[in-house]
Specification:
mainly alpha, 8 helices
């Protein structure tokens, strides 16, 4: 019989929460077709002076800077030093999310090895880490999603004030940083919706996994 550990329970719960959260955030960052679909759906070429290819090239060049550290640019669109500095701040957050995802995945791998060597997480109210990580994350983002549904603009501003404290360069001047004209608020809103939906799916998957594993233990 494997030894139960309360510390193992806490650590595994945290790693599961971090994995679901960071993976969900990473999806709209790395999934460029999600943005391309918005370019067509919102008819940005018809509302701006640029073609579909020019808009996508501008987005790709900006994102390459944020993810890979490539030289900054926005294609044929005009940009300013202040705008570039904001995207440099975004790059820090993007890479931090990727680092958290990698760290949490490695943590889960270590937890699996520990489990295989005779230690298992304790249970709280007869529920394991998968259930509690899913439930806690779900409750938190239900609150966030509710606030966003009531007032997305306020949530958007609060987000920037928290993650870019003391800075105002996230408020773009379209005459200086034209890329903001092809990154409308609806795109950021839909990114938020996608992240929340992925978190919701991940939480449900964790809770279903907990239920399946519990039924399997009872059957054995």
């Amino acid at each position: 019989m494997k030894k139960e550990s309360k510390i193992f329970f806490v650590i595994l719960t945290i790693f599961l929460m971090l994995t679901v959260l960071s993976a969900s955030i990473a999806v709209p960052i790395v999934c460029r077709p999600f943005y391309y679909a918005h370019v067509k759906q919102l008819d940005l070429p018809g509302q701006t002076p640029w073609t579909y290819e020019e808009i996508c090239d501008a987005y790709d060049e900006m994102l390459d800077f944020c993810i890979y550290g490539s030289p900054f640019g926005t294609g044929v669109l005009r940009w300013s030093e202040e705008g570039m500095h904001h995207f440099a701040d975004c790059a820090v957050l993007f890479r931090l999310d990727f680092a958290v995802l990698l760290f949490s995945l490695l943590g889960l791998l270590i937890c699996y090895c520990v489990y295989r060597h005779g230690c298992q997480p304790a249970r709280l109210l007869n529920r394991g880490p998968a259930f509690w990580s899913g439930l806690l994350l779900l409750l938190f983002f239900f609150v966030v999603a509710g606030i966003g549904a009531l007032n997305f603009d306020a949530l958007f501003v609060a987000f920037h004030q928290i993650f870019f404290p003391g800075k105002s360069n996230w408020i773009f001047d379209p005459s200086k940083d034209q890329i903001i004209e092809v990154m409308p608020e609806v795109f950021f809103r839909n990114c938020g919706i996608l992240i929340v939906a992925l978190i919701f799916a991940g939480c449900i998957a964790l809770m279903l996994w907990e239920r399946w594993s519990r039924n399997r233990r009872k059957a054995s």
